[in-house]
Amino acid sequence: MFHIFKWATISLYIKRNSKILFFMIIGVLSIVVIDGIYDDLSIYFAKSNQHRYILYALFLKWFLITVISISIIYTILKPLIKPAKKSNKKLQNKLSTKQSKKELKIDKRLEKFKEPNVSLRSNADKILDKYSKKG
Question: Which sequence spans correspond to the domains of the chain?
Fold first, then answer.
């Protein structure tokens, strides 16, 4: 029983936070790629006796890792930082105007059926009436 509950909780968490999890995975993979590139560059600079560029590569590596880490932390904390919605009246006004526009469109469509000249009978009903009058 607990096993089912555990997997249901995990799947619900993944569904609700899929964007955050995707961003975190991309961030971690990019940090791994940056580290690999730095290792290759440091080996290359050491073999070619260009030791001054190793320091620049190190600073660039840690700058990129810091930027990615801060963006991951910001993405995780973004829902917690958002202020509560204060403008419920504005939202309700927007919704009411949208609903009133929809109601006007529906009313215009229904007006043609309110006229006495318009018949709602289908072609099958008309054909049946013709045969019933003949017979």
Answer: 2-81
The whole-chain average pLDDT of the chain stands at 79
Positions of the chain with pLDDT lower than 70, given as ranges: 1-2, 83-95, 98, 112-121, 135
User: Which residue do the tokens 């590569």 mark?
Assistant: 57
pLDDT at 112: 66
Q: Could you tell me which residues come within 8 angstroms of residue 65 by beta carbon, excluding any fewer than 6 positions away? A: 31, 34, 35
Residues 6+ apart with CB under 8 A from 21: 14
| Secondary structure (DSSP) of 89-118 | HHHHHHHHHHHHHHHHHHHHHHHHHHSTT-
